[in-house]
Structures are given as C-alpha cells and as structure tokens.
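Quick one, tokens below. Sequence please?
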C-alpha cells in the first residue's frame, strides 16, 4: 500500500512539474510603442517564476480585423534566456508601415503583445535616394 501511495505521489509531482507553462506578460512593446523599420528595439517581459536557462523565441506578426491568424512571418530572436526579461531585436526591413503589428514571445507557450505601430525609416530612404542620384550623375 505504501509503495502504491509513493508511486501516486511521484506521478503527481512529475505531472505537475512538466505541466508548468510559462506565459510571461509582455511589457514592451505596448499599444503606445512606435518602432522604425531597420532600427534596434527592445522587447521586455515579466520573467517572474521563469527558471534560468529557459530558451525563448520572438516573432513579429500582424493582426487583420476579423482574422484569427497572427501572421507570424518574422523570427527576430531565438535561443536567448527568457529569465533575463528582455531582448534587443532589429525590426526587419521588409515590414510595411502599419499599426496592427504584434510581438509573440515563445518559451513553452506563446503569448502576444498588444498591437503597436511600425513606421518606415524615411531618413534612411532619403540617404538611399541621394546615393542613387550621385551615382546616376557620375
């Protein structure tokens, strides 16, 4: 009887240990965030309760009204430690400006940020245009 009870307790402990899911709340970006294409930005989350060495991945997606798909087309970081509570990323240059972007943070689950805005880097475009003009004149 004692062996059976010990086995049940051990099974319960193993089940609850492996059933822990980390879904940290994303702090940045938030709904007031405005990121710029090609620029370095910070993703930040609450890491309370996450053990050191928990690997993470960050993807950028977007939401369309009436569509449940998160369109997670851009992996911007992977293999970092979720325990650290932040990760710098570079906003991909192939994103179109919009106000419906989200960050999804993956560990053993995925959770999404509020929608936020990504804008074009108009200063970079002007520099590129000036370079093209100089090359065509030369």
């Amino acid at each position: 009887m004692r062996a059976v009870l010990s086995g049940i307790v051990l099974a319960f402990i193993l089940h609850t240990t492996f059933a822990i899911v980390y879904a940290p709340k994303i702090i940045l970006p938030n709904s007031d965030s405005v990121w710029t294409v090609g620029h370095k930005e910070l993703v930040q989350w609450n890491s309370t309760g996450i053990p050191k060495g928990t690997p993470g991945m960050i993807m950028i997606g977007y939401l369309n009204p009436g569509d449940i798909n998160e369109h997670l087309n851009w992996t911007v970081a992977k293999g970092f430690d979720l325990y650290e509570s932040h990760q710098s990323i570079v906003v991909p240059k192939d994103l179109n400006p919009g106000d419906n972007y989200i960050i999804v943070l993956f560990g053993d689950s995925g959770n999404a940020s509020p929608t936020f805005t990504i804008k074009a880097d108009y200063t970079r475009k002007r520099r590129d245009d000036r370079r093209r003009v100089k090359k065509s004149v030369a």
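The first strand starts at residue 26 and ends at 28. The beta strands are 26-28, 34-36, 40-45, 55-62, 74-81, 86-90, 98-106, 110-112, 116-119.
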